[in-house]
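I'm curious: can you give me some protein's one-letter sequence along with its backbone structure tokens because I've never seen that pairing?
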Amino acid sequence: MKLVTRFLAACIGVLATAAIASAAPVTWKVDPNHTEVGFEVRHFFSKVHGRFRDFEGTIVFDEADPSAIQVEATAKVVSVDTGNSNRDADLKSPNFFEAEKHPTLTFTSTKVTRAGKDKYKVAGDLTMRGVTKPVTFDAEFLGASTVGVDGKSWGSRAGFAATAVVNRKDFGISWNQTLDNGSLMLGDMVTIHLNIEAKKAD
């Protein structure tokens, strides 16, 4: 009986060690070809959508320990794309992002907490137009696996989604116009949408 007990204890110890090892943080690099960094803001009465085409990011993800999760991301302002070249030029101008003086948007996480199954609150510092403010994203882990198609491996992939709402005036982006009815052309609140596919870093 003692031998059986010792054997079971040894097996439990091995399994526990394996579980700890498998829960180690994994670094993921954002795949720009399969990721959307988008935003939307009210224009008159509807929502205008846009995105940034040139960006990079890293996610250090630990499903077992949210406090170990880290996020770093950068987007180039000149890559903004709303489907309208005149509007894009205005967004790059001093009226909005002022791309010449402030060429990048950056986000660095400062704290991550669990908010449910596969859901997290990712708090961090967002820098836009040279102004840094705290922002919290509602994020979701969509899964991770080694994937392949027709026998060709695509390596290890992971999916994430995140949303945050920011007040553009907090970042010094206050341009607007008053309409004849007294309302404003643009809304102040901007919703940021992130749909991320990432590759496991080497």
Summary: The two ends are 47 Å apart (CA to CA). The CA atoms of residues 44 and 181 lie 11 Å apart.
